[in-house]
Each structure stands twice: as C-alpha cells, then as structure tokens.
Write a structure and sequence with these properties.
It is built from four helices and five strands. The chain is of the alpha+beta class. The protein folds into two domains: 96 residues, no CATH class; 86 residues. A five-stranded antiparallel beta sheet has the order 1-5-4-3-2, with helices on one face. Helix 3 packs antiparallel against helix 4. The termini are far apart.
C-alpha cells in the first residue's frame, strides 16, 4: 500500500514537470527592446488620448477576457487605480480598474472583483492620432505663451506701482529733507525693490529658455 502511494506521488510529480517544449521561448535581446519601445509608445499614446478626451467610460463592466489582454507596464497607475491593457487581437488600448466591495465590518475587501471600471480609448489611424498630438502640443504652446506674456505684464506693473509709490512718498516727505525722503522711500519699498531685483535676475534665463522652447 505504501509503495502504491509512493508510485502515485511520483506519477503526480512527473505530470507536473513542464517539458522544454511547453515553455514559452525566451525573448532575444532585440525583441525585448522592441517590446519595451512598443509599450512606451502605447503608454504615450494612451495618456495623450486620455488628456484629449478621446475615450469613453464604462462604470461597471461585468467581465473582461484577460486572456485576450496584455498588461502594458507603467511606473505609476493612472489616477492611482487604473492599469493599462492592450488587446492582443485589435491592439486597442484600455485602462482597467477592478471594483471590489467590503465584506466585513473591519474593512476587509473581497479580492475578487464584482466588475471593472474601464476607460476604452478610441482607436484611430496614425494620421488622425498625429493630428490629435499636434492639437495637444498647440494647446500647450498657447498656454506657455500666455503665461510668458502675463509674467512680463506683471513684472512691469509691479515696477510701475513701486515707482508711483516712491514718487508719492518723496513728495509727501520732502519737507523733512531729501535724505529723510530717500530713507523713507527705501524703508517703505524695500520688499518691492528686493522682489524686482530677484525678478530681474530670473528674467534673463527665463527669456533664454522660452526662446529655446519656441525654437523647438
């Protein structure tokens, strides 16, 4: 009887051994690099289209066929919840977040999802996608240009207000003497003068960086 048990165990162990033919072939170095590049491009594409609003959301997808999906590695999950997947057949991209519920008062969760929250990213040809990318870049450029102009307007507005305040103080304290008037001006506008000095120092590298940005 003991011998039969041993034989049965050996049989089971032999059945569990995976033969070399059943193992997935190891990727070559260039294949790994190509896969990494594909994942990087798909991640960039997914984030760009999400920001552009090119997706539709399903609050509670009952089930997903994960056998037909492959995970795209990300350093951080989208909004801390969503993983990015790629459909093996259609190559469509989708963000998936499992929905779980509390099953006890101590806050423990049922690890098995009752559904999934899914962001289905719109599939589009390369030409349409490039148009979306260009439009997104133009929006960013316009925002940077507006911020750059606003910074200059604010800079010169502060200078104008400070000068006006200095003239006002000088006129009102001139009776006490020129030195007293100048001392009063410096005392009352010290903070503004230091701020203008720092802003002026930072203005030059900001202008250089902005010109490089525009050129790019």
């Amino acid at each position: 009887m003991e011998k039969n048990k041993v034989d049965m165990l050996e049989e089971i162990e032999q059945d569990l051994i995976v033969t070399p033919s059943e193992k997935e072939p190891e990727l070559k170095e260039f294949e790994k690099l190509l896969l990494e590049e594909r994942d990087r491009r798909d991640l960039d594409k997914a984030l760009t289209l999400i920001k552009a609003g090119c997706f539709y959301e399903v609050e509670n997808e009952p089930a997903l066929d994960f056998n037909n999906l492959e995970l795209v590695p990300m350093k951080r999950k989208l909004k801390g919840l969503y993983d990015l997947y790629r459909n093996k057949e259609t190559h469509d991209l989708l963000y998936v977040s499992p929905l779980v519920e509390d099953i006890s008062e101590d806050g423990k969760k049922n690890v098995k999802p009752y559904g999934y929250k899914v962001l289905y990213i719109e599939s589009m040809d390369a030409e349409t996608y490039q148009m979306v990318v260009k439009a997104a870049k133009n929006n960013i450029k316009n925002g940077v240009a507006r911020a750059y102009k606003f910074a200059f307007i604010l800079y010169f507005a502060v200078i104008a207000i400070t000068l006006a305040n200095m003239v006002y103080i000088f006129i009102n304290t001139l009776e006490s003497g020129i030195l007293a008037a100048l001392a009063s001006i410096i005392f009352n506008n010290a903070t503004y003068l230091v701020g203008i000095l720092i802003a002026t120092i930072l203005l030059v590298p900001m202008m250089i960086k902005y010109k490089k940005y525009k050129a790019e």
